[in-house]
Amino acid sequence: MELKKTVSDVHDSLKGIVRVEKEKVEIVDAKRLIDAVDWLVHNAVFNDDKEVRANCRWIIKASASSSGTKQASIQGLYEAMGRGEVGGFTVPAVNIRGLTYDVARGLFRSAIKNKAGAFIFEIAKSEMGYTDQSPYEYASVVIAAALKEGYKGPLFIQGDHFQVNPKNYIQDKNKEITSLKDLINRSVSAGFYNIDIDSSTIVDLNKSDVIEQQRPNFEVTAELTEYIRDIEPDMVPISVGGEIGEVGGKNSTEEELRAFMDNYLSTLARMGNNMKGISKMSIQTGTSHGGVVMPDGTIAKVKVDFDTIERLSNLARKAYGLAGVVQHGASTLPDDAFDIFPKRGTAEVHLATGFQNMIFDGKFFPDNLKQEIYKYLRENMAKEKKEGETDEQFIYKTRKKAFGSFKQKIWNLPQTVLDGIRKEMEERFNLLFGKLKVINTYDTAAKWANPANMPIRLENEMTGVGAEGKKVKEEKGDRGE
């Protein structure tokens, strides 16, 4: 794929396709634009020139906005779920660690076919680093996929696990919170209008009183909620998520949910301004991120506590008006588990590792590249191998961290390989959309969504200017944009 040398080259290549104005892009030839998306997104990701990358991202976003695809908050839909006006489905939130453009294209093809609209693209704080995807890049690649496939309507992009590092928090609380605010700032600037705060990592289970256990959690979540409300765009109330149980820990309880919510809401009330609180609550029900890996590299069967999901979802809706609870670490569950989530009132389910596994273990991924990646992991990630861990367990656990180092090689796989993987993804999303009951949710999502109807600003893409108009430092792996 050709890399453009200058911004002028980009604009020259788009003559007769789009008309670039100060704060918007007018589409002249929609059919030719679809063809141009491939080189635009490639340059948005891999061009060495910062200005070329930024301009390509901006053109993608502005073109999509002109064609009817708007980055949006899912807040309105979740409020309707909390009131009982909407329900019967579970929203899938999909983390894409590699081949983001092609995986997203597979999802959009399935969404169009199934008239689905209630789904979220997301990326976690940690994933941004090891996959080398900044918020600006991730949003532009997902939007490029929507533009390529002709998807129109509200598009939900979410910051997943914007997580407090407990060690850093103990050493310097203010510094750790400030770093999260910086991440939130540039994510909102990039169009992430859905943010999941995860300060469950600083819950102190050594305390005897459940309120004191949850105190650091609800206090930090309230502080970050206030920050989000201060920087969110006009008319776009950002959907904020909280978390009471760290994934992989003990199962959550009603007492913990009440302790968090009652004290979180009273803390927000003391801050004033009658601000909106969180719209959903992540809980622990027996899963772990990526699943539990057996010595032969297979995934152990996990029993999800669906009774806890149903009980806490009902409490969250009836007592606090939330959409319900969120299930993390679900992508490696057996297929027959997914039908149960909507039946038990799960608001949202997070899916990540399963799609990664489909890429690496599917029939299309070249074995020679896979072996090159595994060799790299053995040589460069050896310190992460635990005592008694088999090679299969080590590879399974660490291969997600190769997506950043091998990003361009994976992106540039032969077209036949990419087409095959994309088709497999589309088929997988067909199955998941059916089981999670999000087929025919397009009109519902469009009715309740909060789309951002404002100019797409090139300045944000160029400088990393955040929602408050200040320059913010980038996370490791974000190219310093």
CATH superfamily of the largest domain: Aldolase class I
Sheet with the most strands: spatial strand order: 4-5-6-7-8-9-10-11
Highest-level CATH class of the largest domain: Alpha Beta
Whole-number count of domains: 3
Number of helices: 22
Report the C-alpha radius of gyration, rounded.
21 Å
Assign the structural class, choosing from mainly alpha, mainly beta, alpha/beta, alpha+beta, or little secondary structure.
Answer: alpha/beta
Helix content: 40-55%
The name of the CATH topology of the largest domain is TIM Barrel
- Return the CATH architecture of the largest domain: Alpha-Beta Barrel
Strand content: 5-15%
The profile of the biggest β sheet is:
8 strands, parallel, barrel
In the predicted model, the low-confidence regions spanning at least 5 consecutive residues are 465-481
Quaternary state of the chains: single chain
The strand count comes to: 12
Shape: globular
Distance between the termini: 23 Å
Average of pLDDT: 91
